[in-house]
Amino acid sequence: MYNLKIIIASTRPGRKGPALANWIFDVAKNHNEFSVELLDLAELNLPFLDEPSHTRLQKYTKEHTKKWSATIAAADAFIFVTPEYNYGYPASLKNALDFLFNEWAYKAVAFVSYGGIAGGTRCMQALKQVLTALNMVPV
Ligand SMILES: Cc1cc2nc3c(=O)[nH]c(=O)nc-3n(C[C@H](O)[C@H](O)[C@H](O)COP(=O)(O)O)c2cc1C
What we know:
Structural class: alpha/beta
Largest sheet: 5 strands, parallel
Bound molecules: flavin mononucleotide
Helix content: 25-40%
Distance between the termini: 19 Å
Number of helices: 5
Strand order of the largest sheet: 2-1-3-4-5
Mean pLDDT: 97
Oligomer: single chain
Radius of gyration: 14 Å
């Protein structure tokens, strides 16, 4: 079984993210080829990047980074559930991505994007550029 992590990017009080994430979580579970886990960046509550070394070196000094590293290393693929904020994606997601490097690499990532009239298209475009820098494979 493939290990799929669904990540809720928004952290705003009253956010819509969990409703969408719960929907795709059920769809993914019913697919039966994935072991699925839902990760909520609001619950994870990572601080802004506070590691002194480049994350490629994996010289993690903080417990929250070691835990996040183990969680992401265990995954084969991801679905990011992300809203569009000001033509981009939430800072919470960029920060969570920047915490790690190797753990994301060569893994497939799909999207459930949402927002106003463009349905989150622009946030996805902005996000794809960053994900390819991490050697991820957007699908
Ligand atoms: C700070 C902020 C900026 C937003 N910017 C955009 C935008 O550029 N394009 C868009 O289509 N929707 C935009 N929206 C609408 C959101 O995508 C929409 O409210 C969505 O539900 C937000 O996700 P959330 O409820 O999970 O926080 C913005 C909302 C907020 C709060």
